[in-house]
Design a protein that fits this description.
The protein has helices at 2-21, 35-48, 54-62, 69-88, 91-103, 107-124, 127-145, 150-160, 172-180, 185-210, 231-254, 258-280, 284-292, 298-314, 317-325, 330-345, 347-354, 363-379, 389-400, 407-432; strands at 24-27, 30-33. The chain is mostly helical. It has one domain (69-294, 308-432). A two-stranded antiparallel sheet has the order 1-2. Strand 1 (24-27) and strand 2 (30-33) form a beta hairpin. Helix 7 (127-145) packs antiparallel against helix 8 and helix 9 (172-180) packs antiparallel against helix 18 (363-379).
C-alpha cells in the first residue's frame, strides 16, 4: 500500500507540475501535451512493479458494465465528433456572429447574449468544444471592437463549466460518474436540471456585478461576414445531433446503453459525410480537420488514470478515503472535497477516483455522493486552470491571442465566482435529493 501511495502521489504532483510549468513539448513542428505522458508513466510503473495485476486491468477493460472506460471514451468521442463537424462548417461561429448583430452596440446586452449562447451550446454539445470554438471568436471580436475581453472570457468559461452540469454528455466527468453509478440520461437530467439553473443564474448575476462598470461603454464593432462552408454537412450534422440527443433521452426506456447510441449516430454521420464527399468530390479537408481536432490525448490519459484508480482500489486506499469522508452530510463532503481535489489532480482523474469512494454507502447516500462529485468536477474547473483540460486549453488560447489572463487573474475571478456557485448548486442538489 505504501509503494502504491508514493507512486500515485508523485504522479499527481508531477501531473500538476506539468500542467503549470511544462504543458507541452515540441516535437518537430508539433507540440505534444505532457499531462498524459506523466499519467502513462505512473500507470506503467504500477503495472511493472505488479502493484496492480495486469489481469485485473484486462478484466475491467472487457467488463460488460457501465464503468468500462472504453465505453465511456466511445461516448465522449462520438459526441465530440458530432459537435466538431458542426464547428468545422462554421455553425457555432455563425451563431456567435448573429448574436453580436442582435446585441448591437450595448456591451451588457452583448455580454448577456454571449453568456447564454455559451450556456445553450454547452448543454447540447460539451464544454470543451464550446471553449475551443468561442474563445478565439471573443478574442478577435474584442480586439476589433477595442473592448475589454475579460468580462466576456470570464463569462464564457464560467458558463461552459456550469451549464455543462445539465446533461450527462456536457462533460466527460459527468459521463464517467453517472455511468459508474448506473444513472441513465433522464435520471441524470431530473436531478441536475434545477441545481444547474439556480447556480447558473447566480453565477450570471455575480459576473454581471463584477464587471458592471466595464460593460457600460458602447461598442463600435466592424461586422464580420461568417458563412456556412457546407450546407449539406450542416444539415446532416444537425440531424444526427438531434437524433442522438433524442435517443439518449429515450435510452433508459429502450434499455440501450448511451455509448451505443452515440457510436451509431457518429458512425452514421461519418458515412453520410463520406457519401457527400464522393458525390461532390470536395470537402475532404474539412473531414480531416474534424478528426485532427478530436482530443486523442484523452485516450492514453483516461486509460492510464483508470489503471491508477484500479491500483488504488486494489490496495485498499480508496476504501480508506471513502471512510475518511464518512456517511454524514454526503452532498457537502463529497461536493466540496471533489471541488478542491479537481484543482489538485484535474477533474478527470478526480472523477475516476471519486467514483470508487462511496462503495460502502447506502444506495441513497451513494447517489448523493455521485451527483455532488458531478457538481465539484464541473464547478471546480473554473477555480484554477488545473481544474480541467478545458482550463488548460483556455489559458493556452488566451495567451496565443495575446490576452492577459494569467494564473493570478484566473484564480482571482475563479474564487469569487466558483465558490458561491458551488454552494448554490450543492444547496439545491441537497433539496432535490
Amino acid at each position: 500500500m505504501i509503494a502504491t501511495s508514493v507512486i500515485v502521489i508523485v504522479t499527481f504532483v508531477l501531473l500538476t507540475s506539468s500542467i503549470l510549468f511544462l504543458p507541452s513539448l515540441k516535437a518537430g513542428k508539433r507540440r505534444v501535451a505532457t499531462y498524459w505522458i506523466v499519467a502513462l508513466a505512473g500507470a506503467v510503473l504500477l503495472l511493472s512493479l505488479r502493484l496492480v495485476p495486469l489481469r485485473e486491468v484486462g478484466e475491467a477493460l472487457v467488463a460488460d458494465d457501465s464503468i468500462n472506460p472504453l465505453k465511456i471514451l466511445i461516448l465522449f468521442f462520438s459526441m465530440t465528433f458530432l459537435s466538431v463537424v458542426l464547428d468545422e462548417v462554421g455553425f457555432f461561429r455563425y451563431l456567435a456572429n448573429k448574436a453580436v448583430r442582435l446585441a448591437g452596440r450595448k456591451q451588457f446586452s452583448l455580454f448577456t447574449t454571449f453568456y447564454f449562447l455559451t450556456a445553450i451550446l454547452t448543454v447540447f454539445t460539451s464544454n470543451d468544444v464550446v471553449i475551443l470554438t468561442l474563445t478565439p471568436f471573443i478574442c478577435f471580436f474584442c480586439k476589433n471592437a477595442k473592448a475589454d475581453p475579460l468580462p466576456y472570457l470570464v463569462g464564457e468559461f464560467a458558463a461552459a463549466n456550469t451549464w455543462s452540469m445539465m446533461l450527462v454528455i456536457g462533460n466527460p466527468t459527468n459521463v464517467y460518474l453517472a455511468t459508474s453509478a448506473g444513472i441513465d440520461f433522464l435520471g441524470y437530467l431530473r436531478v441536475m436540471a434545477l441545481p444547474t439553473l439556480v447556480s447558473g443564474a447566480l453565477e450570471f448575476a455575480l459576473i454581471a456585478l463584477l464587471f458592471g462598470r466595464r460593460l457600460k461603454a458602447e461598442l463600435s464593432p466592424e461586422e464580420e461576414r461568417v458563412e456556412i462552408t457546407s450546407k449539406p454537412d450542416l444539415i446532416v450534422g444537425l440531424i444526427h445531433l438531434g437524433v442522438c440527443l433524442l435517443f439518449l433521452v429515450l435510452s433508459g426506456y429502450l434499455h440501450i446503453e448511451m455509448w451505443l447510441v452515440s457510436a451509431v449516430c457518429a458512425g452514421s454521420l461519418l458515412l453520410s459525410l463520406l457519401v457527400i464527399r464522393l458525390v461532390m468530390r470536395s470537402g475532404w479537408r474539412t473531414l480531416g480537420d474534424s478528426f485532427a481536432r478530436l482530443p486523442w490525448q484523452l485516450i492514453p490519459f483516461v486509460l492510464s488514470m483508470f489503471v491508477i484508480v484500479i491500483a488504488i482500489r486494489y490496495q485498499g486506499i480508496s476504501a480508506k478515503l471513502g471512510a475518511f469522508l464518512g456517511e454524514k452530510q454526503v452532498v457537502w463532503t463529497y461536493g466540496v472535497s471533489s471541488f478542491f481535489a479537481a484543482n489538485l489532480i484535474n477533474n478527470i482523474p478526480m472523477s475516476i477516483l471519486f467514483s470508487t469512494l462511496p462503495t460502502a454507502l447506502s444506495e441513497a447516500a451513494k447517489t448523493q455522493a455521485i451527483f455532488a462529485s458531478v457538481v465539484g468536477s464541473n464547478v471546480g474547473a473554473f477555480l484554477t486552470p488545473i481544474g480541467a483540460l478545458a482550463g488548460i486549453m483556455f489559458t493556452d488560447l488566451t495567451a496565443r491571442y495575446e490576452v492577459k489572463y494569467g494564473f493570478k487573474e484566473f484564480i482571482t475571478y475563479g474564487a469569487m465566482i466558483s465558490l458561491p456557485t458551488l454552494a448554490a448548486a450543492l444547496f439545491v442538489l441537497r433539496l432535490v435529493l
